[in-house]
Amino acid sequence: MTLLGGCLRLVPEAAAPQPSIDEAAPSAPYPVPTPASGAVDGVSRGPNIADLAIGAEDAASALSGFVESCPQLLRRVDNSGLTNSVDWRPACAAAETWPRSDALGFFQAHFETARVGDGRAFATGYFEPEILGSRTRRPGFDVPVYTMPDDLVRAWPSGTPPSEREGRPPLGRYNASGDFERYPDRAAIEDGALAGRVPVIGWAADPVEFFFLQIQGSGRLRTPEGEVIRIGYAGQNGRGYTGIGGVMRDRGLLGDGPGQYPGSMQGIMAYIRDNPRDGRALMRLNKSWIFFRELTGDGPLGALGVPVRREASIAADPAFVPLGAPVWLDMDRDIADGLWIAQDTGGAIKGANRFDTFWGAGADARQIAGGMSARGRALLLLPRGTIDRLNRSR
Question: Rounded to two decimals, what is the model's pTM?
């Protein structure tokens, strides 16, 4: 394979949240099976759905989300290995016409619960931020919101031995000499590395607010004239993500002690604003930069390719949870309790029973998601007969 032959032009991907704000929280707080051993080996039968005390409104919301997920469930490969597309056909066929007034009956008729590992779960939250922005650059609006660059490609650097060409090639670009190189990181992009070379959707007013919008993976720009521009995840520069909350925790900046800031999104933002020079350096530790596309329809879109809904959609690790499957949570934060639909993924959402709950847009969504850090237990809802089939295959 020649160097150019190993080059893949990127296309926009579905929206995907970046790691949640509470980076001090572990991504796998309990001993759980790993993808290497397979989710299948760590699954056991859970309690009856009737014993979960699912409310009628919660069930109706979950049923609506499940209906939206079905077209993808019926065509996607389940990377967890727990289900096949054929397993979902009876439930999806019934869901279209099932009365929402008896949504709980739908889940009782078509699903059984499954526990992954010991079922102990950890959940954070994400939301769709709305920040000040402008279609055009003007005083006070200087932070570019870039679309996908046309020179961002996947390729093997020259000289990479065939034996090392495994998996997907890295992201980068070809320089003027024709050599493949890493794409500019956050610091370089902030310093103008893409200025005049990559189209912009608009210009944000506040670099701190935009930094956190990038972490969420989608959001809204509200112009001074009142226009709302919805933007969604289109791609990433190929640089590694660093959670600055974890760095701040390690440095003793977050906590409950004197002079420390709360370990939430609000606390992290307060430190950055109180310490602009150090705060900027902290943000630049996260070399990842997110590119966006303008959304004109329903959204924001999750990794499943369907809109994520407030208090109904959840991000999960697809190595353990079939995307589109219902997930039941019972947490020490009651607001996170209930039935959710796994419709998204996230960079820090790794491992069994690790979830990120979606809270929509607005001030209350920002407050809830920014402080969400909940522990409890989780169950997957799988099509009836799945667990018996898995047991026979072991």
Answer: 0.71
